[in-house]
Each structure stands twice: as C-alpha cells, then as structure tokens.
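DATA SHEET
Item: assembly model
Revision: 1
Owner: S.N.
Input lines:
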Amino acid sequence: MVSLSPTNVAAQVNPEPPTALDIKLRRKSRWNAAIRYSLLIIVGFIMIYPLLWLIGASFKTNAEMFSSPWFWPKEPTVDGYIQGWKTSTPYTFATFFFNSMQIAIPKVIGTAISSTLVAYGFARFEFPGKKIVFAILIATLLLPDVVTRIPQYLLFRELGWLDTYLPLFVPQWFAWEAFFVFMLIQFLRAIPREMEEAARVDGATTLQTLIYVVVPMLLPALVSVCLFQFMWTMNDFLGPLIYISTVEKYPISLALKLSIDATEAFNWNSILAMTVLALTPSLIVFFLAQKSFIEGISSGGVKG
Amino acid sequence: MAARCTGAGGGLMGGDSKFLGLWYISPYLIGLLMFTAFPFAASLYLSFTDYDLFSAPKWVGLDNYKKLFTRDRTFDKSLKVTLIYVFTTVPLKLTFALFIAVVLNYRLRGINLFRTAYYVPSILGGSIAIAVLWRYIFAEAGLVNMLLGLFGVEPVNWFGDPENALFTITLLRCWQFGSAMVIFLAALQSVDKTLYEAAAIDGAGPWAIFRNITLPLITPVIFFNLIMQTVQAFQEFNGPYIITQGGPLKSTYLLPLYIYDEAFKSFDMGYASAIAWVLFTIIMVLTLVAFWSSKKWVYYAGDRRN
C-alpha cells in the first residue's frame, strides 16, 4: 500500500475514454480508500478513547467510576473538580499552576533567545573551531541526561540553588538543549541570505541584522521551539522531583503525585479531575498551535 | 558591541573579525562547559569513588563496578528488564508508526484531523498525568478489563503481575507513536511520485513497490527515529515510577529508577554514577553499532555509493 492513485497511472497509460481496466482500477481505488478510512477511524478511536474516558470519568461519581466502560457520566457531578482544586495540601491548584508558570516562562524565553543567538552564529559565520564545536553539538543531541544529572545536582547544591527554580531553567539560558539549536540552524540554512546581505550593505551591524531581518523570518520555527519547550516543561517530573522539596513550591506534576499518594484509595474522581486540570494548559496550547507543532517536528526531524 | 567591528561592507560571512561567530555562540560554549562537559567528567570521576554528600568523595578504584557486575542482584535484574523494555518498545512503536504513516500517506480527505488525533498522545504522554490515567485504565476494575469483559475475557491483572507489568508500560510508550509517525509521514510525502508511477507501469504490485522503492528511500528517517527512540527508551522514568514504582518484584525496575534511588534516596552518589556510566556505555555502544551498520542499509538520495 503506497501513495499511488491507480486512476492516475491508468490515465497516463491510456488517455482515451475509460476502458474496462480503468473502471476496475477506479473501483479498486475506492475500496482502497474505504479500507484505509475504516482502519484510521478504528485506530484513532482507540488512541483517543483513554483521553475521552478521562474527561468523562472526572465528572462521574466515585460509585459510578468503575461500573461501565462508557465514558459519558450518568449523573454528572463537579465534586471531583471542587475536591481536586482544593488538593490534599493547604494550597489550591492555582498555587501549583502559578509555580509551573514560574518555571516555564523563564525557561521558554531563555531557550528562544539563547538558541537564536547560537544558531545564528553557527549558520551565518565562520570561526576557528567551528567544525569541532558543531560536531560536539550533534553529539550532545544523543548524550543521555542520566550521565550528567548527579554532578549537576552537586553543582547546584554548591551554588545554594536547591529548592529554588533556578536549576530548572538557568541551563536553558545557555542554549543547553542542543535539539532546539539544531532545529533553528536547519531552518536558517534554508532561508536565502539576500535580505541579510542587503541590510549589511546598508550599514546594519550583524546584531541589528539578526533582530530586524533574521528573527522575523525565523518566527515560525521560534514558535515551534517555544511550544515544545513549554510542553516538555509541563511534562517534566524528574527535574522538580530532584530539586524542589517544599510543597509550597511544587509545580503541577509533583502536586499531582502527592495527591495520588494521599487520596487515591477513596477519592478517584478528584484525582482524575486534577489529572484533567494538569493536562489543560498543554491541551490548550496544543490546539491553538497544532500546525506549528507538527511542522516543527517534521522539519526538525527529517533533515537530521 | 562586538558586532560593530565588521561594519558596513564586510561580507555577511566572516567580516573583519573571525571571532564574531564565536561571540554569538558563546552562551552555548559556557553552557556546554558548565552543564555538560564538567558534569560529564565529574560523573566519571565519581563512579570511582564512595561519596555520600556529607564527607569528601573517597577514591575506591574499580570497587563500584566490581560490585555491580559480581554481587549486585538488583543491578542484574534491572539491566535485564531495561534491555527487554527497550528491545520490545522501540521496534513495536516504530513499526506501528510506519504502518500508520503509510496508511495516512494517501490523498484522503481529513488527513490533518487524523494526523492531529494520532499526535495528541505524543505531546501529552510524557506527563505524569497520563501515567496516572494509565493506572486507572489498567487497574483490576479499570477500563481495559471492563472492555475485555464485554468480549467475555477474564480480567487480567495488568500491573500486579510481574509477567504483565512491563508490557503495560511498553504499551504506554507505544501509544505515543505520534511524533515518530509525523516524521515518517513527512519522509513518505517527499518521495518522488514519478518513481511509483514508473514502477506501476512496469507491473510492480503495491508490496513490491513498498519494499523496493519506498522503504529504501526512507531509510535515513528510519535510522533517525531508531536512534532517537532508543536513546529515549533507555531513560524511561516517569511511567514506571508512577504506574508501578518499579514493582512487582522489580519487574519494571528500569535502570534510571535504580540510579535515582541510589543517588537521591540512599545518597550513594558514587555507586549511582557507576550505574549511570554503565547505562551510558550501553547506549553509546548501540549507537555506534547503529552508525556503523547504517553504511550498509541507509540510502541517501544523491549519494553514489548505493
């Protein structure tokens, strides 16, 4: 099964009015489409049903939770959300949401600025040692975090940064995530340089050229960078688990874990409501910008 | 500002100062030294020491590694489980991603809708919220068993049983096949359509076309996905930590969990670093093998070798 429309081939081979073969091929193609659609719909349904169930179940009563596989609640209730918003701690969910933003916002902005500067340096300049540094950049794409995590912890402990958000975003201010730099370099390489050269001839410095000419053209790629970094930050669990120890400073991911441990035995719908709340920022961002996501991943990936 | 020294007229490339580019990449160089190179070297050093955070690291030579390979049953089990996990998750996920990409790669109406629906789990899947959801879905009385019940299947003890627990986590990762699929799809769409038409005229069937044209042309992307997914799978943490806490009977106790426990619960930083280095070495060797073998099976269009 490949992307090939048999009718097209037939039309090329035989430009005359439809023959018996033509009609047979067209019928085959219609069958083909029907099979593909059914397969895609079935698989899509299986893929999405857990999420549908999650949202439905968060409005179910605890008694109804495990009584039927159907996602729609019989007696919808928002008790789960009321309990879930209060959480099992002295703080409300708003505190944890606010904490997550205190990590995500500096991290996203720092990633965007530093990755742009570095990608510009690699894509538009020659300098001594460029090849070696670029090779290192590619190698770090594959370097598992697990080897650097312990000494990083020791470093931040030395700096007195434990139980603050600094370890969670300061590295990103130094273009620490090579993936984003690489993605922007690929994008910059595909942009023609005439505009930049014209700006330079007119007397702009390279920095002015970057800000006024390159960044506007780079904007679609930068949007993807910000979106991915935001999602990854919201998903990050191990980072906060290692560095944040005061409940008041917990981001959403840790708060959710804490609530499961405290209330799971009896309060299922409040756990599921919290789970929905935890996913909401990511879901909103995703649906607002899903095109950038998918384009980002295919352009960043394929050229790799 | 250093950017000024090239001035007008200096070419965009190079200019008067060949250090201008270095100025732009300086944040990366600082970050690389502080947050990658130094920790990388330090963790190798720590792996030869006994270090509990409170007294200075004590050099113990190869003791940590000796203990790992001769006396540590937990490590044996954890390593075995990790390898099983990686070698089932990666092929399953990639095969499924490629299969769906091939089905999607067709002039169908609503293709973007499907693409989005398949991608949503990938974007959310790493979060612990989804791991929590997984606990409910695969619970004894959970969604999966209720659905199986409709077909008269006895309830399965998904993560209470060491036989099944790892598979439940594998399924969680396979469910997130979307990002690999999007990359495959982009590659499939860039294949030159005239090649298909030529082959069809020569009488090749769909399977022969897929095997002899499509597959070789997308090998670079298969290679890319294979490496990225393998490196990721070796570092799986959230799923087993939330869903099974490594149990039952350590059947989902992947190496990253073991490293975390040794480092941040037992504060045995030296021993944890040694485990991390073993894990790193495995990943590196597999990556090198993949790169080496890629000369034999990865085809780059425009490259004459093939």
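QC remark: Chain B has 14 helices and two strands.
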